[in-house]
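Lecture 7, part 2: worked example. A protein chain together with pyridoxal-5'-phosphate.
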Amino acid sequence: MHVALGLIKFRAVTRASRYVKYFTTLPEPKEPSISSASIPGPKSLELKKKLNGMQLAEMVNFFVDYESSTGNYLRDVDGNVMLDVYMQISSIPLGYNHPRLLEVFNNANNVKALINRPALGFFPGKDWPVRIENILKQIGPKGLNNITTMMCGSCANENAYKNIFISYMRKKRGEEGNFTEEEMDSCMKNRPPGAPNLSLLSFHGSFHGRTMGALATTHSKYIHKIDFPSLDWPIACFPNYKYPLEENERSNKEEDKKCLAQVEELIEAYEKKDRPVAGIVVEPIQSEGGDNHASPEFFQQLQCISKKYDISLLMDEVQTGGGCTGKFWCYEHFDLPSPPEIVTFSKKLQLGGYFHTLEFRPRETLRVFNTWMGDPSKILLLEEIINVIKEDKLLEQVKKSGKVLKSGLLQLEKEYSHLVNSTRGRGTFLAISFETPELRDTVIGKLRKLGVHAGGCGKQTLRFRPALTFEEKHANIVLDRLRKVLYET
Ligand SMILES: Cc1ncc(COP(=O)(O)O)c(C=O)c1O
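Predicted complex, written out as structure tokens:
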């Protein structure tokens, strides 16, 4: 019996090791190379036609050969090799096929975590508490000693909003307060007092996701929202700065003041109309909305307002978190006297979720819950990503390559001021704006033909979202290709 079991085990291990031998990482090419006459090339077009027969695939730019993409370079199915400074909408932290991440699944136990996906809220694996403790210790924002894991950015925000409402109502009822019969009955009919008329304040231009609650706080493009019923929640203006910042200090300060005054006005107005604001939801840099920045002072004052009205502050770090701004969390640039109560994450961290204070933990079970509550295989990746960030000093790397890219962009802005303006950003989380939306789109298209894959955001902004492994040499290639495009435009 023992021998037979041993044999089965041995075969499984051999099969697993045969499987993992398949993993390879190609060296990065020296520079991009484009072989098809246009992008998408013929093979991409063919695949797009096929996919379009089964689902709406209009947004597909091109199809990718993920097996042979490597580091900062993506290879499409037509053999075009592009320097990727968009990285799957800012969600690949270490570039393609990083050997250390491939190595994670060169381990039979980890492969088992991949295929035996648990309902984490009910049946977590034996290693789960230690893994969660490790993540909290390594990257948990100071003072936020609880974590709720989820799947994506939208569901991180969606569920964090529920925690805000739960905590608000608990304060209102008092610690000993219980749900009333009327509350339990009315919530089943979507009516107050059980489903109370509470609200969250968000900002024009923000993007917090596409599920119904998150969408009520998203205001970047109408196409995300149209035809969907939504909630009467307050929306304040986010600062709209003039660049360069050094030359526009006074007017930008005025802009901060105006927006902050509006935040307070809205909180008071919604209190009066019996739809009190339970929390403020904000991105440290409005990303999808056009890389709109606000000063540390703006965020400090915003936090003061949240404390004054005893409401929560949620910082949505889904796009900014993970080191791309030169700090692990972007809000660390703001010198806040205390951390925001909730920090949501996803994208580069692979796992979705949020860090929060104990106060936001529901007393009752199953109020913030779903089947999977995250994914253990993603936490394995996240652990290794954090190790690599530390060992390879990638935050320092981001600062160095970001400096090269930003100073090059500022120089191009000087030379081509009739085309580009408003270079801005932190670390490699950088952006430039163009005179018109059409010009921005043309430049992105031409850059791609020269082998640089960048993305757009807002109306007329080009955003850079490279991996944390982006180096000065990559920044120089981007600048060289962008210079060519601007020269020809
Ligand atoms: C700031 C921010 N919040 C939330 C989301 C939604 O994340 P997901 O697309 O994973 O649902 C995004 C996505 O781009 C984002 O940038």
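The chain has a mean pLDDT of 95. The domain at 23-85 is CATH 3.90.1150.10 (Aspartate Aminotransferase, domain 1). Keep this in mind for problem set question 3.
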